[in-house]
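#struct-help
A.M.: can someone run this one for me? Single chain, 271 residues.
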Amino acid sequence: MGLASFLKSRLVPAELDQQIERIRKPIGSLGYDPWGYNNEAIKYGFSLTRQIYEKYFRVQASGVDNVPAEGPVLIIANHSGQLPLDGLLIGYALASRKENPRIPRAMIERFFPTVPWLGNLLNEMGAVLGDPVNCAKMLENNEAVIVFPEGVRGSGKLYRDRYQLKRFGNGFMHLAMKYNATIVPVGVVGCEETIPAIANIKPLANALGVPYVPVALPVILPAKVHLNFGPPMHFDNTEIPEEQVTERVEAVKAEISRLIDKGLSERKRLF
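D.P.: on it. Structure tokens below:
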């Protein structure tokens, strides 16, 4: 047995290995797809994520079967917690479901790929630079794509603003309409408490070229996380004024707000 096989046998549970193998991805002869996704890398990544998901954040996911088994899908969620933990947990929830598992592609902020090692790791785990061109290509390939329309406005919000949704851009709706993609709204509760920030040091953030530098404890707190996947939403590609596109976006935002309220009412404690 070679070293790679030995490490895999020790680090990757057999059932997880089989689960990932069930999921079809258009991978080239070298084991990567055009955006850097790698089947073997995600097995190691999800082995660690499994422990975080089940034991640290004790995630309770409901409605995950609302994500269609195939075809283009936009998984639209609120963004929070300073780090992209919400995307990781949503991805694992979908990849680990018993019936028709999928590995969604997450649209990440532009500054993440500039972080040494992190950019390549995120790509191997299925993340892609969050721009409309990449998202369109993913939908053309019938991928499920995780999108956070709040962007850094959501992930960088302060604790006092927790669960207050920021402005949603209209870009995801235009893509959903063009590619006939199903929208599945998700309300994430718990990630706001993982790294509660009391302030943002904007001058330092500007100097470092990052969107925010939070004043927060240097630890990730073990908040219990609730993921509520809502019913699928469909929007036709009828040519309509931008104001009506915004109305559709607001309808998705309102559903996410409802799902957040559901999660807040369901949780019994923070940790």
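A.M.: thanks! The chain has one domain: 54-266.
D.P.: also worth noting: Residues 242-266 form the longest helix (25 residues).
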